[in-house]
Design brief:
alpha+beta; L-fuculose-1-phosphate Aldolase; seven-stranded antiparallel beta sheet; globular
C-alpha cells in the first residue's frame, strides 16, 4: 500500500500546530486516518518537530494499534488516537496538544462554557471535560483508557463528535478532531482560543452565564447545519 498521502497530511498537521503556538518542545501530536485501508499516520514519539518529515510519520493499524509501516516508534498517545478512530469513524484526523489555556481548564477540571458566537461557530455546546481516570485506568493501559474515557464522556452525555469536535481530558489536556488534518488543526486552534476568551471573560465577570441557546444554535447551524449558508459553494 502507498500511504504517502496520509503521511504528508499528518506531517503538515504536526507542523501547523507548532506554527499556531499550540505546542512547546514535543508536547503534542497529530494523526490522519484512511478509514478505507484501516490505518492512520501519526507523529513518531519524542522526535523534535524540526526533524520531522512526511517519511518519518508512522503508519498504524486502526483496529490493532500495531505499526504497519515506519522505522520509528509511534507517538506514546497512539492508542488514544486509535480508540477515537474506532469509536468515531467519521473522524479523519486528530490533534492533541498541551496548549496553555485549554490545559488550565482541564486541570481544574472544568468544561469550556459556550459564552458567545465565536465558540458557537465551531462547537455546538460547551467543550466537555472527562471524568478523572481511576488508579486502575492510569496504571493499566493508560493511553487506551484515555481514549475510552473520552468516548464515555461523549456517549454518556449524548454529545455528537461532529457537533463538538474536541474535548478536555481531566488533568491532562485537549484533543480535537475533524474530517481532515486541516480541519482538526483549525478546531484545535479554536478550542485554545475560546478557552483563552472564556478565562478572560470570567475574570471580567465571574458570574457570567452561558450565551442564549437561540443565538448559539443559529451560529452553529448557519455554518454546519443542513441549511448552512456561510461561505462559498457550501464551504464552511
Amino acid at each position: 500500500m502507498n500511504y504517502q498521502k496520509i503521511r504528508e497530511e499528518a506531517y503538515v498537521a504536526n507542523i501547523r500546530i507548532v506554527e499556531a503556538g499550540l505546542v512547546l518542545l514535543t508536547w503534542g501530536n497529530a494523526s490522519v486516518a484512511d478509514h478505507e485501508t484501516g490505518v492512520f499516520a501519526i507523529k513518531p514519539s519524542g522526535v523534535a518537530y524540526e526533524d520531522l518529515s512526511a517519511e518519518s510519520m508512522v503508519v498504524v493499524d486502526i483496529m490493532s494499534g500495531d505499526t504497519v509501516e515506519g522505522d520509528l516508534k509511534p507517538s506514546s498517545d497512539t492508542d488514544t488516537h486509535a480508540e477515537l478512530y474506532r469509536a468515531f469513524d467519521r473522524i479523519g484526523a486528530i490533534v492533541h496538544t498541551h496548549s496553555h489555556y485549554a490545559v488550565c481548564f482541564a486541570q481544574v477540571p472544568q468544561s469550556i462554557p459556550i459564552l458567545g458566537t465565536t465558540h458557537a461557530d465551531h462547537f455546538r455546546h460547551a467543550i466537555p471535560v472527562t471524568r478523572d481516570m481511576t488508579e486502575e485506568e492510569v496504571t493499566g493501559a493508560y493511553e487506551l483508557n484515555t481514549g475510552k474515557v473520552i468516548v464515555e464522556c461523549f456517549r454518556s452525555a449524548g454529545i455528537s463528535d461532529r457537533d463538538v469536535p474536541g474535548v478536555l481530558v481531566a488533568r491532562h489536556g485537549p484533543f480535537a478532531w475533524g474530517s481532515t488534518g486541516t480541519k482538526a488543526v483549525d478546531n484545535a486552534i479554536v478550542l485554545e482560543e475560546v478557552a483563552r476568551m472564556g478565562m478572560h471573560t470570567a475574570a471580567i465577570a465571574p458570574d457570567i452565564t452561558g450565551a442564549p441557546p437561540h443565538l448559539t444554535e443559529k451560529h452553529f447551524t448557519r455554518k454546519h447545519g443542513p441549511q448552512a449558508y456561510y461561505g462559498q459553494s457550501g464551504n464552511t
